[in-house]
Task: structure prediction
Amino acid sequence: MIPGAAGDDPANLELSVDDMRRLGEDALARVLAHVASIGAQPVRGEIAAAELCAAMREAAPEHGAPIETVLDPLFRDWIPRSFTTPAPGYMAYIPGGGLYPAAVADFISAATNRFTGLWQAAPALVQLEANVLDWFRQWMSFPPETRGLLTTGGSMAAFNAVLCARERHLGRDVRPGVLYLSTQAHHSLEKAAKLAGVFRDRVRHVAVDAQYRMRVDALLDAVREDRAAGLAPFMVVSSAGTTNTGAVDPLDAIADACAAEGLWHHVDGAYGAFFHLCPELRPILAGLPRADSLTLDPHKGLFLPYGTGALLVRDGAALRAVHGMSAGYLPATPDLDEFYDPGQYGPDLSRGFPGLRVWLCLKVFGAARFRAALAEKRNLAEQACRRIAALPGIVMTAPPHLSLFAFHVTRPGATRAEENLATAALLERVTRRGRVMLTGCTVDGGRFLGRVCVLSFRTRQAHVDACVEDVAQELPFVWEA
Result:
C-alpha cells in the first residue's frame, strides 16, 4: 500500500518489502523495454515541446498516486521528447554512455544511502572510490603522489583545477593572474576561470594552427606580452580532443613551454584522455602524463552515464591545500598518505557515491574490454571519415585525431554563407531520417562544419554504415533551398 492511502499512518514513509518489490519490478520492466528498443527509437525525438512543457506545470501533489499513473507519462510522453543520447546512431556533440551496470550501482547507492563524504563514515566504500581514482592515475601514467576527485563532469573538474593553479601561483593576489586557452577551448573553461575569480579580461584565447591545435609560438608571445605589462601569467589549458573538431593540442610542446615559463599546465581530457588506455594511441596524446592536472570524463570515454567526471592533480598536496578543512563536529582526519578522504580533496561534504558506478562497471567488464571498445570507436571514425571524404562536394576540414572529425559541403562558385547553409541542411536532413543524429560547430570566424563523433558503446559497424549511407543519400538535395 502506498503511504497516504486510506487507513494508512499519515506520517509513514516506509514501504513494505512487497510494496518495494512491486515498485521495483514495475520500474524495471519499463526500463528494460526502453533499453531493448533504443536501437529502434528515433535518434532525435520531437523536441518542439513548448506547449507540452507549459501544460506540465502543476502544484505539488497533496496526496500520493498509483505508481503506474506516474511512470506511464514519464516513459510514454516525456522521455521520448528528447535527444536519444544512448542510441547507437547518436554521433552528435560528444556522446555520453549509459552502461547498464552503472544504473544498478546507482540503485544500490541510493537504496543503501551510505555517507561517503568522509573516510571514517564508510571506509571500505571510500576505498572503492580511491581504487577508481588510482586506476585512472595509472592509466594516465601520473605519479603515485597524484590525488584526484570524482565530479559531476568536466566543468567542475576544470573549476577545481583552476583553484589549485590559482592558489599555487597567485596566492591572495588573484587580480593580476592570466590564464591561457586556445580559441577552440570548451566554454566551461572560461566559466571555471570566472568562478575561481579569474575574469574574462584575464583570459587569453590563443590562436590555433591549420589543424585547430594551439600554437605554442602564439602562446609564448602572449605570456611574454602580459609579463611585460606587469601581469602574472599562471595557467595554460590545453585540449586532448576539442569539442569542435576533436583536435589534440601539441601537449608535449605546451608542457615544455609551461615548464620553461613556470606555468601550471592543465589538460582538458574530458573527451579524449581515456584513449590513453590504448597503447597504440598514446603517441597521439604524447605529453599528457606531464600535465599538472587533467580533466577526465568517464561519462564519455568510459561510456558511463552523464554526471560522471573526474580530476587528477599531479601534486596531490595542491588539491588538498585548496579543500582541506576540519571542524569540531567532524572526526579526526585519517593519515592521508595511507587513506583517501574525499572531504579533504573536494568541495563537497554531503555527496553521492559516484565511485560505485565506475567501480562496478570496471569490475563487471574489465579494463581490456574498455580498451577494445575505444580502439574500435577510433577505427570506425577513421573509416567513416575516409568514406564521407570520398563523396562529391565534401571537404574534410578536420580529419580525426581520435574519433571525431569535421567537414563542410561545397560546390563550384559557392560562397561561404551558401556552404554553411548547405552543410547545416545536410545535418538536418540526415537527422530527420531517424537513424543517425549529427550536429555542427562554427570555427574560423564563421565557417560552419558538420561533425561526426563516434563514442557511444552501442555504435558499431552497421551504424557507421548507416551514417555514411544517409549522408550520401541526402547530399544531392542540400542545395535545393
The radius of gyration is 24 Å. The chain has a mean pLDDT of 95.
